[in-house]
Amino acid sequence: MSSLLRYSKRAFGAKKTYPKCFDKILIANRGEISRRIISTCRKMDIKTVCVYSDADKYSMFVDEADEAYRIGPAPTNQSYLDMHKILEVVKQTGAQAVHPGYGFLSENKHFQKLLNDEGVEFIGPPGPAITAMGDKLQSKLLAKKSNVSTVPGFLGVINDNAHVLKISNEIGYPVMIKASAGGGGKGMRIAWNDKEAAEGYKLSKQEALSAFGDDTIIIEKYIQQPRHIEFQLLGDKHGNYVYLPERECSVQRRNQKVIEEAPSTLLTPELRHKMGSQAVSMAKSCGYYSTGTCEFLVDKNLGFYFLEMNTRLQVEHPITEEVTGVDIVEEMIKIAAGHKLEYTQDDIKIKGHSFEMRVYAEDPSRHFLPSIGFLRNYHEPEPHPNIRIDTGVQEGSEISVYYDPMISKTITWGETRTEALELMKTALSEYVIQGVVDNCGFGLSICNNKAFASGNYDTYFIPTYYPDGYTGEVLKENDNYIIAITAAQVKNIIEHQTCDEHAEVKLFDRVFVTIENVDYQIDVDHTTETYHVGVVGGNERKSFEMSDFHLRYNSLIRFNTKEGSNSGKHLVQFTGVTNQIDYNWRYNGTRLKTRVYDQRQFDLKRHMAPPKVVDYSKSVLAPMPGSIISVEVTVGQTVEDGQELLVMEAMKMQNLIKSERAGKIKTIKIKKGDSVAVDSVLIEFE
Ligand code: ADP
Ligand code: ADP
Ligand code: MG
To answer: Where are the beta strands (DSSP E) in 322-395?
Structure first.
């Protein structure tokens, strides 16, 4: 399995024999989940067929599948959502079953039926169970019937604006407005008053229609400060069920999960049993089989409310695999082939603790908006038996506008929660990702957060600790010293590399580094590798003796420093140099730019004019690449702070761009339908 994902032995187990299932499975998905399914199929000696769009022609999963077929251009409705094209490939290849992964067609009952009618097994629940559970409204109705507690709300379809306001007032604000067919946190908005309810209804409806092709809207009470806890269950076609221990997914941005853990720090064995059993009873009531996840919100008093059921394999299933040793994909395949579950509830034990971080190409300093581009430099954390990386990309891959900007799922396991958490910090610091902006630094900051580390957090965690997103750590003086001495060392390395081999290598004994407008002077003693560093003009100087300096992938730098309080292990990422003097870094998850000079350059610098600063304070810039859905203002119009300016669509999300100031509009540079790049000027104020 070495060419595939970096899996742990825990979930994938030692070699064993498997009951006869299928000879060939088609995987109707892409990226990391396709690779993950291929891994299990290989283990079980099942051949795999993948389908791919033009955008994925060079993807890893395409290479790794036994067979791969192009099904269309990049847009999902012409490829991964085109069930007839996929069926054609099924017929052509003779695949006996289809694994839909998550997203795309995984919860689509028409796809299930289409396959069934052709005698092809859908590796998932039966059609009627998808109908009963796949939609938030229907599943809540069913939960009520099975005596499972649900979030209070209106169990019906909302017709129009007046209806929204009536229902919202009956439930009482705050309310949650949701697309019944929604998923991935999309098509969902909180409303605290009539105005927000009307606005939320409009946007959620639009978003639901474009993302899910179904604009049914439901409204429910907004539960304050809840924890999101979910149970994945397995059921076979013979009526046997087990629930797997829970995952806590309360760290969310835009109602979408960022870091998950298993088990939850909140549950007692009794509560676990109670919630898990309710999940099973719901599944039983609709003849469910395969795997599925019941999501609950748990309030401060440990009251729990059924939220929805995801009738598929979930993104975060690996952490459950890590703590139970159950390969969930293997179980899905065996169940689909008609085999009985080999587990009873008593066989399911929790061993250790596991975390998953969804490493995304997104910018935590810009409302977590996707960052697209090529992975110019990409290196995963150093191999470790307790670090599992589920990814679909490698160096050179493109993160495109067409699909979720996921880079990897980074999963750690430990005997204890602390051990697993520490390992996550290591993994996230070792990631080298260049070419797109990523959220590793943000993840690292979460892992270092006291509330998170203590296990006492809820879904308000990100809004509470990161109300404006994450812009990086504030570096301390000692951090600046570490960066400064690393910069001096890197400058010498670069100089060394560019010298022709016969020339005498002249190392710099003195280097100047500017960090945030402060100039540091570093004097280097090359015989002892001692760096004396201090602020130019200041009196205080510190000395660091550097040892074991390693530079990997031209970017990941590790070294140790000795001497009194300055001793320690350091990990600094050098992310490139431009114009010879602009050095870019990543340190403790924070990106920073420095300027690095030798004595001559530093002397010259004092005579140079300061760089020109462009004033963007009167402009509204595009916070992400995307297309303009509508423009709500006109030239000459006076707008208030917070007023709606335009709606942009990016990654299937409708994003309302509001004014961050009051003023009169001077120019509008875009119109409906335009595609815009990130940071382009959309609107200018007078
Ligand atoms: P999980 O609960 O497994 O984390 P999410 O709800 O975050 O799952 O969704 C997983 C993926 O599936 C995301 O990429 C999301 O965009 C996509 N997705 C979820 N539901 C749907 C749906 N109904 N239609 C299309 N894509 C969906
Ligand atoms: P999706 O299908 O997008 O996963 P969910 O209904 O599962 O949608 O909700 C996703 C997240 O949104 C939840 O984990 C929770 O944080 C938040 N959420 C959803 N409904 C409510 C609610 N009624 N009250 C408070 N938070 C909610
Ligand atoms: Mg959900």
So the answer is: 353-360, 362-363, 369-370, 373-374, 377-379, 387-391
Residues with CB under 5 A from ligand 3 (ion): 295
Residues 508-519 have pLDDT tens digits of 999 999 999 899
The CA distances from residue 363 to 9, 370, 399, 443, in Å, are 33, 6, 13, 12
The percentage of the chain sitting over the pLDDT mark of 90, rounded to a whole number, equals: 74
Distance 646 CA to ligand 1 centre (A): 26
pLDDT tens sequence across 65-84? 999 999 999 999 999 999 99
The C-alpha R_g of the chain, in whole angstroms, comes to 27
Q: What is the band of 566 on the pLDDT scale with cuts at 50, 70, 90? A: low
Encoding tokens for residue 433?
């990702």
Question: HSE on the CB side for 37, CA within 13 Å?
Answer: 30
* Average pLDDT of the segment spanning 622-651: 85
Per-residue pLDDT, averaged over 341-365, amounts to 96
**Residue 651 in contact with ligand 2 by CB distance below 6 A:** no
Question: If you measure from the C-alpha of residue 150 to the centroid of ligand 2, how many angstroms do you get, rounded to a whole number?
Answer: 12
DSSP state of 150: B
CA distance 72 to 30: 13
With a cut of 50, say whether residue 3 has pLDDT above it.
no
Peptide bond connecting 174 to the previous residue in cis, omega within 30 degrees of 0: yes
Count of other CB atoms within 10 angstroms of residue 487: 26
User: How far apart are the C-alpha atoms of 426 and 380, rounded to whole Å?
Assistant: 11
- Of the pLDDT bands very low, low, confident and very high (cuts 50, 70, 90), residue 563 is low
Give the C-alpha separation, 236 to 122, whole Å.
14
Q: Specify the residue with its C-alpha closest to ligand 1, atom 6.
A: 184
Q: What amino acid is encoded at 20 in this protein?
A: K
8 Å CB contact between 513 and 584: no
pLDDT at 46 over 60: yes
Per residue in 180-232, pLDDT tens?
988 878 889 999 999 999 999 999 998 888 888 888 999 999 999 999 999 99
- Rounded Cα distance, 69 and 77, in Å: 17
Dist CA 520 CA 573 (whole Å): 19
What are the CB-based long-range contacts (under 8 Å, 24+) for 429-432?
429/571, 429/588, 429/589, 430/379, 430/380, 430/381, 430/382, 430/556, 430/571, 431/359, 431/379, 431/380, 431/381, 432/377, 432/378, 432/379, 432/553, 432/555, 432/556, 432/573
Q: How many whole angstroms from 249 Cα to the centroid of ligand 3?
A: 10
330 annotated active-site = no
